[in-house]
Design goal:
It is built from 4 helices and 6 strands, in the order αββββββααα. By secondary structure, the protein is an alpha+beta fold. The longest helix has 18 residues, at about 1-20.
């Protein structure tokens, strides 16, 4: 019985560790993403998707604006597929460029921030371009 409990605890710890590698994506007018390490709680309240982050902030998106919500492995390739069509190509570069051209102080940065430095700039374009060249 002790071996069974020890095995169960070990499996649960592994599952928890693997979950940290996933990213939560919320696709609405723009796509926002959060690593599961950042997320404390995800709820649906008063017609909104509410993401409570561990830093104490809360991000709210109207359910009516959401086209999909999903979890995906946080892989470099996945972050470079900006438009999330399953292919890293020039379309991803165009999405970043369009975001840079239309960015305002109120803009929500989503998948356009490929290198996840909290800014959408030429470095993000270069990361996607390098990925295209290497594949």
């Amino acid at each position: 019985m002790k071996k069974l409990i020890a095995t169960a605890v070990a499996v649960m710890m592994c599952i928890t560790a693997m979950a940290d590698d996933y990213t939560l994506y919320i696709v609405a007018n723009t796509t926002t993403n959060y690593t599961l390490k950042q997320v404390q709680k995800l709820t649906f309240e008063n017609g909104n998707v509410v993401v409570n982050l561990k830093d104490g902030t809360k991000q709210t998106t109207a359910i009516s604006a959401v086209s999909r919500i999903y979890f995906d492995l946080a892989a470099a390739y996945a972050t470079q597929d900006v438009n999330q069509d399953g292919t890293v190509d020039t379309q991803d570069v165009l999405v970043i460029y369009e975001f840079m051209q239309n960015q305002t102080p109120e803009s929500t940065i989503g998948t356009e921030d490929v290198n996840q430095d909290s800014a959408v700039d030429t470095q993000d374009v270069l990361n996607v371009y390098e990925s295209i060249q290497n594949n």
